[in-house]
């Protein structure tokens, strides 16, 4: 083909239909004769319009890619019948300049309200088992004086005298295409098609007022810090009595003095003296349910973990619970009187531990050392 339509629009040969359309709109804004009236620009505008007519039509584009004449089948486009042909993308030119060529009509005063977000602080027991809260929200509600209409009692919106209720005004412009009629929102009524002559004194014509209301909310078991709970229709009422938006609850879990949460599992630390670790003992551990006795086996080492299954947080939207991990920390006495020291020396002698050789193991390496080794391997 003599014309390279892809080069004309500045797109790749594998460009999508959306990319072709965007490229044409951009060029149409720059080259439209109403913007640049010189003859060269007008000719260039015809070229991009013809290219777009072909590349925006799947059948014509396929014929063009195969080297055939896309207008040979009798289609009356820019290449066959000029800009008055049936294939001329008139609506795309209007869309490029005015957003749309179609008539919109009056728009409703009622619009959906905005969403609202509220932070809710909960303690660990509340997030683990769920709870019910009554929350106070400062939000917009429908005006009771005008029932959301925005008009003073006994009055109604009146038809706009400028657009006669259509919500838009039309304007005729001359171009090389002939007379082009465009539509835009009516500046007198803002596109509503009507005006409020007597606004409500309570809401000043907005149809809503701000107030504080109380919402009873059920928090499900298993929620954790940062989770958002959506309550549909509990947000702000929209202008003009429009439907309300949604309310989002952002969960903030307060720190617990004993437990640290990791997912649905809980972790805590119990400290026992060296003698109790060696001989074994029993300790009482506070759980989320109640105090519970835990046996410490003889010979327990510092760092060992005792697991209480099913004593953690309930799984969100599932059955079952996480676990409670009890980390044992063995305390070594720091100060000994003479009698205690003598007893420990006798014990060390009996166990042959007066001069222990010590057991060595590879230490934990820092992050920077591991990163350095990774680079040294390459």
UniProtKB/TrEMBL annotation:
Gene3D superfamilies: DnaJ domain (1.10.287.110), Heat shock protein DnaJ, cysteine-rich domain (2.10.230.10), Urease metallochaperone UreE, N-terminal domain (2.60.260.20). It is found in: Cytoplasm. Keywords: Chaperone, Cytoplasm, DNA replication, Metal-binding, Repeat, Stress response, Zinc, Zinc-finger. Zn(2+) 2 binds at residues 160, 163, 186, 189. CXXCXGXG motif repeats lie at residues 143-150, 160-167, 186-193, 200-207. Residues 4-68 form the J domain. Residues 130-212 form the CR-type domain. Zn(2+) 1 binds at residues 143, 146, 200, 203. InterPro entries: DnaJ, DnaJ_C, DnaJ_domain, DnaJ_domain_CS, HSP40/DnaJ_pept-bd, HSP_DnaJ_Cys-rich_dom, HSP_DnaJ_Cys-rich_dom_sf, J_dom_sf. Its main location: cytoplasm. Binds 2 Zn(2+) ions per monomer. A zinc finger (CR-type) spans 130-212. Its cofactor is Zn(2+). One of its GO terms (biological process) is protein refolding. One of its GO terms (cellular component) is cytoplasm. One of its GO terms (molecular function) is unfolded protein binding. Participates actively in the response to hyperosmotic and heat shock by preventing the aggregation of stress-denatured proteins and by disaggregating proteins, also in an autonomous, DnaK-independent fashion. Unfolded proteins bind initially to DnaJ; upon interaction with the DnaJ-bound protein, DnaK hydrolyzes its bound ATP, resulting in the formation of a stable complex. GrpE releases ADP from DnaK; ATP binding to DnaK triggers the release of the substrate protein, thus completing the reaction cycle. NCBIfam families: DnaJ_bact (TIGR02349), PRK10767.1 (NF008035), PRK14278.1 (NF010871). Homodimer. Belongs to the DnaJ family. The J domain is necessary and sufficient to stimulate DnaK ATPase activity. Zinc center 1 plays an important role in the autonomous, DnaK-independent chaperone activity of DnaJ. Zinc center 2 is essential for interaction with DnaK and for DnaJ activity. This is Chaperone protein DnaJ. It comes from Actinomadura litoris. The lineage of its organism: Bacteria, Bacillati, Actinomycetota, Actinomycetes, Streptosporangiales.
């Amino acid at each position: 083909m003599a014309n390279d339509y892809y080069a004309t629009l500045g797109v790749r040969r594998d460009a999508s239909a959306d990319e072709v359309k965007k490229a044409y709109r951009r060029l149409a804004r720059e080259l439209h004769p109403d913007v640049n009236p010189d003859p060269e620009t007008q000719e260039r505008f015809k070229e991009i319009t013809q290219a777009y007519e072909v590349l925006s039509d799947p059948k014509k584009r396929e014929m063009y890619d195969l080297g055939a004449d896309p207008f040979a089948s009798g289609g009356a486009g820019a290449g066959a019948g000029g800009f008055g042909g049936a294939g001329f993308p008139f609506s795309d030119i209007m869309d490029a300049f005015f957003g749309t060529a179609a008539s919109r009509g009056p728009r409703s005063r009622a619009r959906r309200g905005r969403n609202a977000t509220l932070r809710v602080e909960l303690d660990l027991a509340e997030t683990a088992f769920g709870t019910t809260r009554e929350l106070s929200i400062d939000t917009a509600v429908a005006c009771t004086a005008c029932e959301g209409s925005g008009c003073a009692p006994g009055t109604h919106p009146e038809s706009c005298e400028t657009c006669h209720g259509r919500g838009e005004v039309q304007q005729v412009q001359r171009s090389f295409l002939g007379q082009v009629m465009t539509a835009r929102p009516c500046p007198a009524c803002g596109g509503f098609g009507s005006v409020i002559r007597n606004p409500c004194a309570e809401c000043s014509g907005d149809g809503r007022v701000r107030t504080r209301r109380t919402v009873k909310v059920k928090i499900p078991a298993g929620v954790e810090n940062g989770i958002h709970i959506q309550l549909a229709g509990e947000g702000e009422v929209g202008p003009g009595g429009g439907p309300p938006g949604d309310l989002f609850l952002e969960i903030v879990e307060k720190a617990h003095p004993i437990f640290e949460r990791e997912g649905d599992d809980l972790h805590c630390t119990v400290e026992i003296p060296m003698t109790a670790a060696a001989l074994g003992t029993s300790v009482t551990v506070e759980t989320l349910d109640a105090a519970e006795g835990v046996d410490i086996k003889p010979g327990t080492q510092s760092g060992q973990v005792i697991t209480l299954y099913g004593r953690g947080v309930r799984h969100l939207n599932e059955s079952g619970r996480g676990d409670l991990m009890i980390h044992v920390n063995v305390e070594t006495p720091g100060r000994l009187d003479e009698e205690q020291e003598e007893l420990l020396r006798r014990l060390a002698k009996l166990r042959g531990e007066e001069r222990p050789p010590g057991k060595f193991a590879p230490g934990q390496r820092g992050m920077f050392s591991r990163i350095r080794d990774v680079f040294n391997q390459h």
